[in-house]
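User: Predict the structure for this protein chain, please.
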Amino acid sequence: MKKHCRLILLFLLCVFSIPALAELPHPLPGSPLFSNMADEASLTGVAEALIDGGLNADAVRSVAKWIADYNTLSAGNPAYTVTSEFQPMPEGSVDYGTDEAYGDYNSQWWRVARREYWDVLCRSAAFYLLRDRLSVSAPLPRESWDTAGWLETDYNGIDTNPCLDLSDDEISAYFTLFQPIDIAVGSSADDMYRLILDTWAARGVTFSQDQATLITVWHQSGGRMAAGHAAVLVPLASGGCLLFEKYSPEYPYQATVFSSEAELVPYFESWMRLCYRGYTLPEPILILKNTQRLNEGE
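Assistant: Here is the predicted structure, written as structure tokens:
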């Protein structure tokens, strides 16, 4: 009897000591929490939140493998250390260092791992997760894709990275969605917004409006504008929202829990300042949630 009681007690202790992997933290207003998902608990929690947000479970599980793979391969990167669990966001956004701090480390560690390609970037990671939640009815002809300019790195990744197993139709939708748009130099954010909506309408771009959505950060350069960054946003049942993003081929994956969508605008404004330190900050910027403008009147 005593043996059985000890076994039952041991079982109960084990059960109640196991963390709830799917339970993401609840940040206070103005105090977002972030993680690079270098531990199983945060990676599993983020994956389950993305699936609960309406994303395809197989796609999410594939991306979770990419994250674990990236965190393992980049463990020796001297520019930063990937984080486990969720931690307070440094003021504004996370600083992963400048491109100069990386040298050729990342291209070398891919080669050490016998990879003939670089990791995915922000737009391809977001599109891979959201591709069945958007449609493009008037895709651009292949010869017009911007594969040697703004989207050259995107094209190289899709062409060589076996993780990005997209169909021909999905690839066409990708380059139609993210194709840069001609715009008069010095145009306002209002001009940018109207032109994006008109261009997407002409290209037949539509989004599923419930749950998981595409976040894009647009800016201008040399008479063109494009989504310089993209991410995935999902609402959380417990309140607040989860932003999932890949910073760039060199930089890590990041999941951030915000108490409200209103905190996205100052986050991305800080993110842009970090990205362009040492350079002229492009202004204005436009932050969209699918087709909804988030930074109104800026």
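Residues 1-21 have pLDDT under 50 and may be disordered.
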